[in-house]
C-alpha cells in the first residue's frame, strides 16, 4: 500500500522542467503562439505565453513585460528560462537582456525578428494609418536613427534565428530588398553574435505555426543547433510522437 501511495504521488507531481517564455509580435496577441506553446509543452517544457499591449507603448516600456513572464515561470533550483519570440517579441528580449540577464538564462529562439530594422517601416511609417495600427513601437522598428534594434548590443547568449522566405503580400515584398517573408527581409533577421540561422519556406504571419519551425525550435532549445536536413514530414511525425 505504501508503494502504491508513493507511485500515485509521483504521478500527480509534475516533473521539474525548464520554462519557456513566449512573446508575440507587433499588433498580434498571445493566441498567435498557442500552437507553438502546445508543441513546447508536448516536448516537456513548461511555458508562459506572455501577453503585452504591443501597440500602446514604446519598445523599452514593453520590454518590462518580459520580466513578468520570467517571474511567472517561478523557476526551481536548476531550472532554466528560455525564450521563443515572433517578430518584435525578439527585440523586446534583446532590450531586456541588454539591461540585465537572468542568472538561469537558457537559450533564445527568434522567429522572423527585425534585428536590423524593417525596410517596410521605412516605406510606410509616414502614412497616418501606420501609427493607428502599430502604435509608437512600430515607428521604432525602422532602419534609421530612431531604430531600436540597430542600437542594441550584439547578443552574447545562445541565439537561434529562423527566417521565412515566402510572402503573402507582393506589394510589401516589392518594398523589401532581397528574399523576405512579406514583412521582414531574411537579411534583416540576422545579427552578429547569433549562434545559428535557418531559413524556411514560410511567411511572416504563419511562421510560428509551421511544423518545421516548431520542431527546429525544440531542437535548438534542447541542443543549441538547427538541423537543415529535417524535412516537413519528419517534423510533423516528431511533433505527433513528441520524442
TrEMBL record:
Position of the signal peptide: 1-17
SUPFAM superfamilies: alpha/beta-Hydrolases
AB hydrolase-1 domain span: 20-123
UniProt keyword Signal, yes or no: yes
Domain of life: Bacteria
Claim: Transmembrane is one of the keywords in the record: no
Classification via Pfam families: Abhydrolase_1 (PF00561)
Keywords: Hydrolase, Signal
Single annotated GO MF: hydrolase activity
Listed name of the protein: Alpha/beta hydrolase
Origin species: Pseudotabrizicola algicola
Lineage: Bacteria, Pseudomonadati, Pseudomonadota, Alphaproteobacteria, Rhodobacterales
